[in-house]
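pasting input
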Amino acid sequence: MFILKHLFCFALKILLLRKGVIYVINTVLNADEINQLLRRYGVKFGIYKNGQFKEQFFPFDPIPRVIGADDFRVIEKGLVQRADALNKFLFDIYHEKNIIRDGVVPEDFVYISSGYLPQCEGLTPPENIYSHISGIDLVEGKDGEWYILEDNLRIPSGASYPLIARELTRMASPDVFKTNGVADNRNYANLLKDTMDFVNRGGINAILTPGRYNSAYFEHSYLAELTGASLVQNDELFVEDNMLWQKTYSGGKTRVGTLYRRISDEYLDPLTFNLESLIGIPNLMEAYRSGNVAIMNALGNGVADDKGIYYFVPKMIKYYLGEDAILKNAPTYLPFYEDDRDYVLKNIDRLVIKDVAEAGGYGVIFGSDLSDEKIENLRQTIKREPRRFIAQEVIDFKDLPILENGEQVMRKADLRAFVLSGETTRVWASGLTRFSRNPDSFVVNSSQGGGFKDTWVLSR
Amino acid sequence: MKTLNFSFSTKLTFDNYVHDHTFALRCMPVESPSQHTVSCEMNISPFVPTRNTMDSFGNTITAGYISKEHRFLDFEINGRAEINLSNPKTDFMPCYLYNSAYTVPDKALKEFYIELSENCSAETPFDRTAYFSDKISDIITYEKGVTDTKTKASEAFALKKGVCQDFSHIMLSLLRLDKIPCRYIAGLACCDGETHSWIEVWNGEKWFGFDPANNCPVNEDYLILSQGRDFGDCSIDRGVMFGAYTRQLQLITSNLTEVY
Amino acid sequence: MSNISIEHGDRLYWLGRYAERFFTTMKSLERLHDKVIDRDSEHYKKYLECFGLPDTYGDSKNFFESFILDKNNTCSVAYSLERAYDNGIVLREEISTEALAYLQLAMDKLYGLKGNSLKGLAVTLLPLQDIMFSFWGCIMDNVHSEEIRNIIFCGKYVERLELYIRLKYRYQLILREFERLCTVLNRIPENTPYRFNEKQLSVMEEIIRDSERYSDSRNEVLSALAKLFEPSKRKDLVT
């Protein structure tokens, strides 16, 4: 009665040519079977379409992105350096503000940022860690160089997808892993648990989710399962005696020592931030301020992953660590500085202009898409409000092969790397590679129909 | 220096039982070089253990949680404080230079500011504050009931009416456009049976108080309960509770008298 | 004691109930289908009567289609499975991704069924039953906390007893399932939400232990069963 489905296999040869080393990887990945397994294990993300919640399967492409061991060593060093500097920057901004006093970062860029929270001034998070999980987006340029696109230090998501995809690919195509020397990425749960335990103030680890109808609910519940943390919603938590508690069904309470929250700052405590928030925990700030609970990531991190602050990250690395940045930013100009402004005004038709005040994918303008009249308007706006914008060169990034209807085609892709800061700073030897399904699009966002790939880091 | 006796109480009643009630009060006087609390007693009913913490703006927050069903929450403070404005306050925060949720100016406020600054020859922050306040009291009428605690500076400015809170917000908005750091104050004033609001302005070295609703500088007859960028940072009580209640009624009484 | 939240306590109980409703509904429809083949093509009306439902189906083909595949029919196999999944999805860290996958698998299988495959109902439903046996095996094996497991099984056996009574299964089966339920109930600690109400349990006990009384008093048992987890009144303290 069970019909054996004919499953077709792909044999792919990927040549990775880098720094004189040639890896030949024979990947025989069973695409159909893996996608069936992904379905079975409910690897979904939720989206709202016409006001209705729908769950979609996240399209998985079986051809992995492969990063060679030498390449990864460089990326790893660069990411650790970057995450460390960003953590030091956050501590500095909410305490002494030396970097502003020393003129490295102009104060306006800090204080007009919507991610800067004066309510966190003087507040020191447990173990001085602000960004426990940093999701750093990179692209590989056609020149073979890696560029940082943006830092996500608030609630970066996506680690669960390559994590479960690896589990399933190993089930479906064990042979592939026999010979290729792929670093096992299934330690992510341990890295995350170590981080939660390290900052824990006494009590259980809990993951706070806005609920089942959140787009990343799969991730919240999967990470809770793997780390043994309790998956909670706000109404089962309360603050008493400046400590955070979870109500239990028998009428008791259990102390929460680390709260890995997956809701944003402004909704987290209605008594400190947005009073209208229905998904927050009242007085959580008081428990946090008293040092009785660790919040992952810390509040107020938005000031460091702001579009305007991005420009200054290499300078931060120099300032705090005395080192040169290992990984490059995309070439960026701040019209705030006169030289940069002249350059931007002159070359506006081939730059990307980003409005610092806008979040997400909004306020991103490609100069080449604009009419002459609109370009002139933009020039005037930039002259009038130079602090509102940054401008970047369009990076020509390397396309990756994906399978579409059995054929191999090339598409734009980026890489979200995950850096975990606990007792030490560690880079997860994998990452979420997202690709655009539309051949002309640079947008790799999953809510816009993009898919994902596993990211293999070779151990030799 | 003046010594003041203060008392403040609020009675919050619900028309049905509520439970899991979390609250945060900012009603303990702010401690600073120019204001020292000699004694302060707080009573909360129904009885509930509370904890005090200090927020980033220097306010004492009294936090509590009542899980059981109840229909009211009363709290009162009584105490004595010494006010001495000859001791300067120097606790600066950079955020006071930037407009915040309640004070973000709209087009009308910006235009009003340009007009003001063109006609203002005063140079020091104090003189400019006095000038702005004069102009505001010319065009804004003190009137109760037209605005509420959610009214923003731009909205009150459009109405040309409001209470002390609105006067403060409009002043903050204009001063910040003028690149003068300033902050919102909630507190008690002598001869005023209600809570009052005024502002403090940074003159480059220290804070001075100004009362835009009364268009006068602040003297030692004022007691500061909380301070911040705007009303949002200073609400004397905030709470979240669960229950089938549809209305809540709040009665506030306060008293501030000089001790001779 | 594990720290089960109020929300998850209820979810666990209802996961047990809906997973069982899914399974027992399939089983009973299978039995019904067997009768319809050559004995009484209108026998499905008796089934509807058990739940006090009017016949809006016209014939048994429509009836079976609706009771198996219609997500809007609250007595259908599909509806129960959806609800089981709804409860399961928020319990991943308690029941494991592996167990949850069986519910996903059952959904994929069920929605893959076409109307005409219902002709051979028993064979068609067999893989779904296989999946559910695996699901329960997975719960037994993967859920380490006995307290959590007991709540799920408590829901499961309450549901089974209720359906058996409504569907007028024979007395011996009722007695057997009642005893099974009692075993689980006794494992639920006092002062937790799924601790049984002593009064209601003794009402059920008295009736079910007496086969004659049982046949006249099904509704009494059902109403006691519905109140099985009402909090017992605290004994007033005499001062």
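fyi The CA atoms of residues 38 and 130 of chain C lie 27 Å apart.
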